[in-house]
Amino acid sequence: MSELEGLIGMTEQAEAVRSSFSRVFAKKAELTTSFYHHLFLSRPEVEGMFTQNFGIQKEIFSSILTMVVRTLEQPKSLDLLTDKLREQHDALAISADQWQAAIDALMLSFREVLQDDFSAKEDAAWREAATMLVGKMAGSTD
Fold it and tell me: Is 1 inside a domain boundary?
């Protein structure tokens, strides 16, 4: 079993994240816009957490998504990245419901932006990867 398989599940799920990333990356601007739209729609209170230029925030989000996918097979690098992200998000006191809303907004955005070019297998794999990432960012040991 590869390190990626250990982090996000079975081989098929790991491959689904890797193989779909180029399609995700090609639509990163649309995906990012959709993500924040759905996040703020479901959790309007989190919009106030974003105090910097929102264009920059969108770029940061898509860069982090890229870094996460690139480091999934490198547990030490992924741990360093998630440690840094956790530190950056700690002061915001994000609730478990808000973290879940972020996962749900991301998954909804994938389906909305990629439409028929996003399989059920890819959906499940990305959800598992996003849940793992959020768990690490939120400081859970699961």
Answer: no
Who wins on pLDDT, 29 or 4? 29
Instruction: Identify the CATH number of the domain in which residue 65 sits.
Output: 1.10.490.10
What's the average model confidence in pLDDT over 89-104?
82
The DSSP code for 95 is: -
Cβ-based neighbour number of residue 113 at 10 Å: 21
> Is 76 contained in some domain?
yes
User: What is the spatial distance between Cα 22 and Cα 15, in angstroms, rounded to a whole number?
Assistant: 12
| Domain that residue 95 falls in | 9-137
Q: Which residue has the tokens 């079993």?
A: 1
CA 120/CA 49 separation, integer angstroms: 32
Q: How confident is the model at residue 103 (pLDDT cuts 50, 70, 90)?
A: very high
**Count of structural domains within the chain:** 1
Q: Which of the two residues, 64 and 100, has the higher pLDDT score?
A: 100
